[in-house]
Amino acid sequence: MLKKITLQISHGIHKAFLFLTTGKTALICAILYLLLSFLLVYASPRSLIAFLMFLSAILLVYYLKIDNRIKFSFAVIIALILIPIFGVRNIFYLEVIFQISVFSALALGLNIVVGFAGLLDLGYVAFYAVGAYLWAIFGSQQLFMLHSIPGTQPATDKFFLPANMFYLFIIGGVLVAGLTGVLLGLPVLRLRGDYLAIVTLGFGEVIRVLANNLDKPLNLTNGPQGITPIQRPTLPEPILNIIRVVLNPIVGHDVTIGEFYNLFFYLAALVIVIIVIVVARHLDDSKVGRAWTAIREDETAAIAMGIPLVRLKLAAFAAGASFAGVMGVLLSASRTFISPESFSFMQSIGVLSMVILGGLGSIPGVIVGAAVVVVLNLQVLQSFSLYLSQLRQSEAVIPIINFAWKNLSNQLDPAKYQRMLFGLILIIMMIYRPGGLIPAARRKRELKADVIEPIEAESVAEGEVNHGSA
């Protein structure tokens, strides 16, 4: 009886879910929820709950079973209208979404190497550094200071290249980082598994140490002090004036040039992410993508089938590295400052955790994984830490145990335990959802087969036992 009631309840929930996620009902629900979350963010620019609701509305649009053209219309409205409005109203949100875009591109690049080709790369951040230092060196005053001791060079107004050369260096970042990926791939072609991971880890550290020490005999990178100022591309004033006339009444204040630059880099990152997604999807559905899958599953069998192992491994390293290189160029221009500390080993681990959390080989999965990690880092944990800090400055006490909040140690701030939290999340994901938040279709089939085969084997064994008994 209880089983029958449970089945009826689950069937009813399933029908309600289908009703709310298909057809006109789904469209109306999505519009209402999106508008509600946008109005909450607009009215309360510092509300974490409102911002999380808005992000969940975007995810809801992705999952709805409606026409793809309608989904595309939603995406355009969200990306080009809603996000710029509340992003300029509270610039921190625009920064969070910019970080999500940057790390989405990095995760998509690493997904090609790890998810598609099965090559464990623990030094991926090195390609990010190559792109960043490429524009930092040529787009700053650094090449005029090659013979100066860091910290003693005279101030100068001259930059080595015009600011608008940034657009050319976007392409240059792709090419130089891709070439660096090939150079990394050449000596490690015979390695696999743990050995490949160790070599790539060493490569990442080599790049960081070079950036840290190439301030002598020629001061190329300015050492640990980093390079600043780095130029940003110029923005057309007539277009800015038109946008300012439209945005000023909506956001409630005069839009500054700094806010325009934040908006520009968000849109530039968005365009790059879209291009990266298109390239990654085409690679996944191509002969190259299927060959990478064969290499990931069994290199020996792939070679026996005539797959050119050397070329395809190099192609995987080059494709993944090029995505990181272009984002490195964008990062250095947006921050106007670059130092070796921005490219530590933990950055590589962070990007790898995004790929694992989202789902190896899954394009939408790694984007969701990047969003989850960035929001946890910049929003959730920081907000909790700030809230605890405010409680410490008050006279409030914890009920029942009568403990004063002001006596709570600073060492218990959630922001200090982000790596432990990510470790726990990854452990839980590996146990309960090994395919990731949004598993790739191929990965789903593999996991399903892994579950079905032991069940079938057990059934066969039971049948043999019963037959023997008979």
Description:
There is one protein chain. By secondary structure, this protein is an all-alpha fold. 71% of the residues lie in helices and 1% in strands. The protein has three domains: 1-89; 91-356, no CATH class; 440-470. It has 17 helices and two strands. Strand 1 and strand 2 form a beta hairpin. The protein is globular.
Write the layout of secondary structure elements.
Blueprint: H1 2-21, H2 23-43, H3 48-63, H4 68-89, H5 91-116, H6 125-138, H7 166-185, H8 194-213, H9 237-251, H10 257-284, H11 287-297, H12 299-304, H13 309-335, H14 345-358, H15 363-392, E1 397-398, E2 403-404, H16 418-432, H17 441-469
Antiparallel strand pairs: 1-2
Question: How many helices?
Answer: 17
Return the string of H and E elements. Answer: HHHHHHHHHHHHHHHEEHH
The largest sheet, given as strand count, sense and whether it forms a barrel, is: 2 strands, antiparallel
Please estimate the helix content: over 70%
**Given the C-alpha coordinates, what overall shape results?**
globular
Total beta strand runs:
2
Count of discrete domains: 3
Structural class: mainly alpha
Low-confidence stretches: none
| Residue share in β-strands | under 5%
Mean pLDDT: 83
In short:
The protein has helices at 2-21, 23-43, 48-63, 68-89, 91-116, 125-138, 166-185, 194-213, 237-251, 257-284, 287-297, 299-304, 309-335, 345-358, 363-392, 418-432, 441-469, and strands at 397-398, 403-404.
